[in-house]
Amino acid sequence: MTSFLESKIQQFRHITTPFYYYDMALLSNTLQRLKYESDKYNFTIHYALKANANSEILQLIQRYGFGADCVSGNEVSKALDTGFEADKIVFAGVGKSDAEINTALKNKIHAFNCESIQELEVINEFAANMLMKAPVALRLNPNVSANTHKYITTGLEENKFGINQWELETIVERLKQLKNIELIGLHFHIGSQITDLSAYKSLCLKINEFQAWFLQRHIALPHLNVGGGLGIDYHQPDQNAIVDFGAYFKVFHDFLEVLPGQTIHFELGRSVVANCGSLISKVLYIKNGINTNFMILDAGMTELIRPALYQAYHKIEKLTNTEEKSKRYDVVGPICESSDCFGKALYLPTSYRGDLIAIRSTGAYGEVMSSNYNLREKVKAYYSHELL
Ligand SMILES: *Cc1c(COP(=O)(O)O)cnc(C)c1O
User: Fold this and answer.
1) What domains are there in the chain, each with its CATH number?
2) What is the C-alpha to C-alpha distance for residues 282 and 354, in angstroms, rounded to an integer?
3) Best of 72, 192, 193, 200 to mutate for ligand 1, by most ligand atoms within 8 A of CB?
4) Per residue in 204-245, pLDDT tens?
């Protein structure tokens, strides 16, 4: 099968590698699908900026009317600069700094997703200074396993995130004294790259229990934010370019007990942008070892850290000399770290210096996590509509 990227080789040959390439038509189709499926149930979507905060990408997402999910003060500012409406911005994070809290308060965002009693006290104090009430959703730890990599699981009691069930009574009592906090909802986020939808069913059942607990105390909350984490198919980026948002939302529609007038919020990052991005790289050298052949690329963990950081899989596709007979390679980067490896024992067409390689599904947590380790320069991004 010829991939869409192969049709771009002529343009790619003129660009200095490595670089990120974004298929904006795919992003647009993904956003249309997301909008269609979420509108069915009146669900509200906040795009998680941390997955990819490139201006071009944000502008397109904003045009579909989605809100923003931010995890830093700079993300809040960037969302506002891009045109996301303040009352569609939520701000999460286990360690919000004083300056970040004040930025968000000043801009009157929709909600702070709060993670501890101390954070509530600090926000209360700053809100009092500004003579305002801070809208807050409590980030609760549902103790639900997401069946994903341990570094991207967030909803277990052993994780640093969220407020645990046994702290709730104390927090609700304390909130009565925090006059500048307005409790508007509950927030959850159980992890990332979740492909087993039954984890979301468990989350819904847990949320129903929490909600009942609050109702017993005569607290009805207007907002439920169920977070993000929907996983994508890293193995078949062409066949499954757009995730099944319909099946995902249906789980929440079927299992979440929604109160009259209550709004349900989602924070999706990866599932929106991952598949529209590819990291394009050139083969620098082929080194034939005893047990394996090393394909040394000009891209490394400085451009894409996911494989080194949490053993993430990305499909590696050869764009040139694709007719050659296949050979076994360890595909590695040039950085002075043994973990700088994109894939081991892969069968790819025999490769030569100068061949072009695409590392697929790198639109999320790719470019945003790049670093200049080894004093490497930040690589450029190109968008499909620029390369016609
Ligand atoms: C990272 C994050 C998200 C987005 O996660 P994805 O796996 O990219 O969908 C949503 N909410 C919070 C609080 C996050 O930290």
Assistant:
1) 6-20+275-386 (2.40.37.10), 24-273 (3.20.20.10)
2) 6
3) 192
4) 999 999 999 999 999 999 999 999 999 999 999 999 999 999
